[in-house]
Specification:
CATH class of the largest domain in chain B: Alpha Beta
Radius of gyration of chain A: 21 Å
Number of domains of chain A: 2
Number of domains of chain B: 3
Largest sheet of chain A: 11 strands, mixed
CATH topology of the largest domain in chain A: D-Maltodextrin-Binding Protein, domain 2
Structural class of chain A: alpha/beta
Bound molecules: adenosine-5'-diphosphate, magnesium ion
Order of helices and strands of chain B: HEEHEEEEEHHHEHEEHEEHEE
Number of strands of chain A: 11
Shape of chain A: globular
Oligomer: heterodimer
Order of helices and strands of chain A: HEEHEHEHEEHHEHHEHEHEEHH
Strand content of chain B: 15-25%
Largest interface: A-B, 18 and 26 residues
Largest sheet of chain B: 5 strands, antiparallel
CATH class of the largest domain in chain A: Alpha Beta
CATH superfamily of the largest domain in chain A: Periplasmic binding protein-like II
Distance between the termini of chain A: 53 Å
Structural class of chain B: alpha+beta
Strand content of chain A: 15-25%
CATH architecture of the largest domain in chain A: 3-Layer(aba) Sandwich
């Protein structure tokens, strides 16, 4: 019995750390003393320039960058809020809910436009549109659709071409996918018609934008709907077999947001990290090869297509609403 | 006769302080009331939004195939956005069990009211306002009660309230300052009639005891009436005592004069030595009484007149000349010559009757205390102050008594056998002092008394 307890005791730290990360990377500062743990949904490749410019300015720190899906972040943070210092996610709704539920530290000294922050705790630092990514070969000789209506028409005209070659987020597992889908549904009925049409053509569901872009590039997919434009644009620099469409009927733009965990052990450094994200100076340094799009700071205020940071984002996180929405979505998509 | 008045506080200050104090109290009350009212209105605003949110959620509740579906609109939470980014909580309950939303809004004992608004606290200690309502859904064979709670923190409300408080405080302070200014003005203008009355009475001449005629505010009517009555009584008393003194002098002197003339006549007719002696003593006693009565009355009259001098422009030299002329017969009886040194006019503003009285007493003294066949010199000078000096060739004042001789009824050792009442120098001194001058007694180095009467 005691023997078993000893074994459990020895294994316990490993059990806690047994979290399956999508990616986990330690960025070392010049003479690090402490480590800042950043919980994020953003692919390391996009984020490392930001971390590196932070470390250049704060050489006495390490940054441990932990990547997981948007939908998991809430659960991970709620489980051990003291283990993470900064939380970054593209799922604005989940972030708002975490802040609303008291998991974020107020950072009153950071000045950021009202529309790009919530409760002086949650700070947006990019604005990234949801885009449609299409393989050029599919539209050879035809005009590439500019909006959802035209996409529906194109799909209906040549179902045999697109059958099995359409992709979108699986909103059941992807937080940002769910955010895009719910906002689309809120904006227009067109979304449901598109889903029905795509669902009729054996729509394939993905967890992440990266995979969709890969598959569109390779021709495995011809059209991917609601792909993160930032990822696509970065990918397009090396690979131009696909076209990125910013839907002209109603663009949906997400803001990547970050906050400092309320129970952080390094509040000062964590705040410095968020300030670093927010002031966006790293965009100007040559370090930035990630092309995470800078928050469009419109002088007259908020970019009107941006999803507003407000408590109403929690609406679709409601258990009943989510059940209803997923039901409806499944009905449309899975046929 | 200036007695110090007992001063206790100031009407004006009291009025000002009362008004300012009142204004301060009013300002504070105003602040409290407006703040309370604002808090109520702000709370009503929040409550109505929360209730609207509850209603929109409840409205979305339906029974579909026996299951409760609450597809509430985006606006249900969107309407709760505030400038301070208030936190929002909600809970949807079916028959007391939580369907979705926040656990802390459905406490296990169901202690929250299921309709209306109330205050509560989140698990992390934030104060929240909660609105709730419920609704019964009726299905084919089920009845179920849906309760919705929507809650919100009060940060924006607090900001609004603080803002209002600041404004109201500023407004209250302004109101107070204005009121303070007004109270200064009001108390000053209230006190003006009193001040006007005071100065009109202070400006009056000594003889003016007429009633106050200028209009006064109604609150001062009884004061002014009393004042008028008092002055009337004083006026009457004064004129009565003046008349009384004149009357008394007349009444005493006239019979004494009659008695004296009869005694004199008798003296010529009787031959026996002892009878003549008795009659002479009688005449002497009558003289003494008459003189004493006269001086007593003079003194009384002078005391009365010194309180309110009747000054007139007069020439001191003329006045002296006239007196000397009148007293010359008396002087001649003792072979004394009266010399007036100066003939230049010396103009003074003084009470003629009092001056005559005083100087006559001084010359009288000189005549009384001088030996036969001597000289009395009188000098009038104008500077530094109008002065009359009288010196004689008698024995002078008894040096050890010189300091007390001017007090009433005091007589020197050298006055034995000489008719007198001890009032002459007292009268002269009173008159000099009433005119702002002094009476000085001294003895000349070569013998003889010197009296200096200055105005
Ligand atoms: N010219 C004077 N020479 C000497 N003694 C005087 C003279 N005048 C006044 N006195 C003294 O001063 C006293 C007070 O004088 P006064 O008041 O006039 O009273 P009365 O002359 O009636 O005695 C006199 O009694 C006398 O002793
Ligand atoms: Mg905001």
């Amino acid at each position: 019995m005691r023997y078993i307890l000893v074994v459990i005791g020895l294994l316990w730290p490993m059990l806690i750390n047994a979290q399956a990360w999508e990616d986990q990377q330690l960025f070392k500062g010049e003479n690090p003393v402490q480590t800042l743990r950043v919980l994020s949904s953003t692919d390391t490749g996009f984020f490392s320039p930001i971390i590196q410019s932070f470390l250049a300015a704060n050489p006495d720190w390490n940054v441990e960058y932990l990547v997981t899906g948007t939908a998991d972040i809430s659960a991970i943070l709620q489980q051990s809020p003291q283990s993470y210092d900064v939380v970054i996610s593209s799922a604005m709704d989940l972030q708002v809910k975490l802040v609303n539920d008291g998991f974020a530290l107020k950072l009153p000294s950071i000045s950021h436009p009202d529309w790009a922050q919530w409760r002086q705790s949650l700070f947006a630092f990019t604005s990234e549109p949801a885009t449609i990514v299409v393989n050029r070969s599919a539209f050879r000789g035809k005009s590439i659709p500019a909006n959802r209506q035209e996409l529906i028409r194109a799909l209906r005209e040549a179902p045999e071409v697109f059958d099995g070659k359409l992709g979108t987020y699986d909103v059941r597992s992807s937080g940002v996918g769910y955010l895009f889908a719910t906002q689309d549904a809120r904006a227009s009925e067109t979304f449901w018609r598109l889903m029905e049409v795509m669902g009729g053509l054996k729509l394939r569901l993905y967890c992440c934008s990266g995979d969709m872009i890969d598959h569109v590039a390779s021709g495995e997919l011809l059209v991917a709907y609601n792909v993160l434009g930032s990822y696509a644009a970065a990918r397009q620099l090396q690979d131009d077999r696909f076209e990125i469409i910013l839907p002209s009927d109603f663009p949906t733009t997400m803001m990547r947001t970050g906050f400092v965990s309320k129970e952080t052990k390094h509040p000062v450094a964590a705040e410095r990290f968020v300030r670093h994200l927010v002031d966006g100076r790293y965009f100007a340094t040559g370090l930035n090869t990630s092309s995470l799009p800078q928050l469009g700071l419109y002088p007259e205020g908020r970019n009107p297509t941006v999803i507003p940071l407000e408590p109403a984002l929690m609406t679709y996180l409601d258990k009943l609403k989510r059940r209803t929405f997923i039901q409806e979505w499944s009905n449309a998509v899975i046929q | 006769m200036t007695e110090t008045v007992n001063v206790s506080g100031s009407l004006r200050r009291r009025l000002t302080l009362t008004l300012i104090g009142g204004a301060a109290v009013l300002a504070v009350v105003l602040f409290a009331v407006v703040r309370l009212y604002a808090a109520q209105i702000a709370q009503q605003g929040q409550d109505s939004i929360l209730s609207a949110s509850v209603t929109s959620m409840l409205d979305a509740a339906v029974l579909r195939d026996g299951a409760v579906v609450v597809d509430f609109p985006y606006a249900a939470l969107s309407m709760l956005s505030t400038t301070s980014d208030d936190r929002v909580f909600y809970a949807i309950l079916q028959d007391q069990t939580l369907l979705s939303g926040y656990k802390h809004l459905s406490p296990p004992n169901g202690s929250f009211p299921t309709t209306g608004t109330f205050m509560a606290e989140t698990p992390d200690g934030a104060l929240i306002r909660v609105a709730s309502d419920s609704r019964t859904l009726v299905g084919a064979d089920t009845r179920t009660v849906i309760t919705v709670f929507v809650a919100q923190t009060q940060e924006a409300l607090q900001v609004t309230l603080n803002d209002i408080s600041r404004r109201v405080a500023l407004f209250g302070a302004g109101f107070f300052c204005l009121s303070a200014l007004l109270s200064f003005w009001a108390s000053a203008s209230t006190i003006t009639p009193i001040r006007r009355l005071t100065s009109s009475i202070a400006r009056r001449g000594p003889q003016d005891l007429s009633p106050v005629a200028s209009p006064v505010p109604s609150e001062m009517v009884s004061l002014v009436e009393s004042l008028n009555r008092l002055m009337g009584r004083l006026d009457k008393a004064l004129s009565q005592s003046e008349e009384f003194i004149a009357e008394a002098a007349h009444r005493v002197r006239t019979p004494l004069a009659t008695v004296r003339s009869h005694a004199e006549a008798m003296l010529h007719r009787v031959d026996r030595d002892e009878n003549r002696k008795a009659l002479r003593a009688m005449v002497r006693a009558i003289d003494e009484s008459s003189r004493a009565a006269g001086q007593l009355l003079d003194h009384a009259m002078i005391t009365f007149r010194t309180d309110h001098l009747e000054r007139e422009e007069l020439n001191l030299t003329d006045l002296l000349q006239e007196l000397v002329q009148r007293l010359t017969p008396v002087a001649e009886m003792k072979d004394i010559s009266l010399l007036v040194e100066n003939t230049e006019p010396v103009l003074v503003s003084a009470d003629a009757i009092l001056l005559q009285n005083a100087i006559r007493n001084l010359i009288d003294n000189a005549l009384k205390y001088s030996p036969m066949e001597s000289e009395i010199t009188i000098r009038v000078s104008a500077s530094p102050t109008p002065t009359i000096e009288i010196w004689d060739q008698g024995a002078g004042f008894p040096p050890d008594q010189i300091a007390n001789l001017s007090s009433r009824f005091s007589r020197g050792d050298n006055a034995k056998g000489i008719i007198g009442s001890g009032l002459g120098l007292a009268i002269a001194q009173d008159v000099a002092e009433a005119h702002g001058g002094a009476l000085k007694l001294s003895n000349l180095p070569g013998g003889g008394a010197c009296v200096t009467f200055s105005l």
